[in-house]
């Protein structure tokens, strides 16, 4: 569903990670034009497509946060 998210207004990039220990734990980091892009109508809806609804149903533990970068090196 990454490509679908990147097609939304304000989504600029995506990085995905899997836990080193091989467990089914993943991390997705989206780069946004503004923090508000994640909260725009339709952008944060878990059922904006059948594929996204399937993914949301499959994974039981979600931890979502919007972070603002304060330093980059």
Count the DSSP helices: 2
Helical/strand content category: alpha+beta
Mean pLDDT: 82
* Spatial order of strands in the largest sheet: 1-2
Per DSSP E runs of 2 or more residues, the count of β-strands stands at 2
Q: In sequence order, what are the helices and strands, one letter per element? A: HEEH
Helical amount? 10-25%
* Ends distance: 29 Å
Sheet-strand content, in percent, reads 15-25%
Q: What's the shape?
A: globular
Alpha-carbon Rg, integer: 13 Å
Structure overview:
- The chain is α+β, with helices and mostly antiparallel strands and 73 residues long.
- Helix content is 19%, strand content 21%.
- It is built from two helices and two strands, in the order αββα.
- It has helices spanning 2-6, 50-58; strands at residues 11-18, 26-32.
- A two-stranded antiparallel ribbon has the order 1-2.
- The chain is globular, with a radius of gyration of 13 Å.
- The N and C termini lie far apart (29 Å).
- The relative contact order is 0.19.
- The mean pLDDT is 82.
């Amino acid at each position: 569903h990454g490509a679908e998210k990147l097609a939304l207004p304000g989504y600029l990039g995506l990085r995905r990670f899997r836990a080193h220990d091989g467990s089914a734990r993943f991390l997705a980091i989206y780069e946004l034009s503004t923090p508000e892009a994640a909260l725009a109508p339709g952008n944060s809806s878990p059922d904006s497509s059948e594929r996204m609804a399937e993914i949301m149903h499959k994974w039981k533990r979600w931890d979502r946060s919007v972070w603002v970068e304060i330093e980059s090196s």
